[in-house]
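Hi all, posting the design record for the shared folder.

TITLE: backbone redesign
STEP: 1 of 1
STRUCTURE INPUT:
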């Protein structure tokens, strides 16, 4: 039975932007980001997401906005935000515009 009066905070259905500052600009920064992400997944004993090749293509194709990349996420507590925190990346989460 679902408790309709529960005080749980619900995430909106609108996706967000996770803005991550790369440790280096350009393709080298993207490659380092992907390497760090892969190492983080392995250290957490997490299996690779089934859409990992698509994710890699997305990261490599993103605009480099003064060293920042913008990744679409569905909620503020996404795995990618946790990765950025754990690996020391500067980041912020904003509503998609």
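Okay, here is what came back for every position:
SEQUENCE:
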């Amino acid at each position: 039975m679902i408790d309709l009066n529960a005080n749980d905070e619900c995430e909106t259905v609108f996706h967000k932007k996770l803005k991550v500052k790369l440790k280096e600009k350009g393709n080298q920064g993207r490659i380092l980001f992907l390497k760090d992400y892969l190492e983080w997944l392995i250290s957490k004993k997490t299996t690779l997401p089934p859409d990992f090749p698509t994710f890699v293509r997305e990261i490599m194709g993103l605009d480099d906005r003064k060293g920042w990349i913008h990744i679409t996420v569905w909620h503020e507590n996404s795995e990618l935000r946790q990765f950025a925190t754990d690996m020391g990346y500067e980041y912020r989460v904003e509503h998609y515009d």
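COMMENT: The mean pLDDT is 84.
Let me know if anyone wants the other runs.
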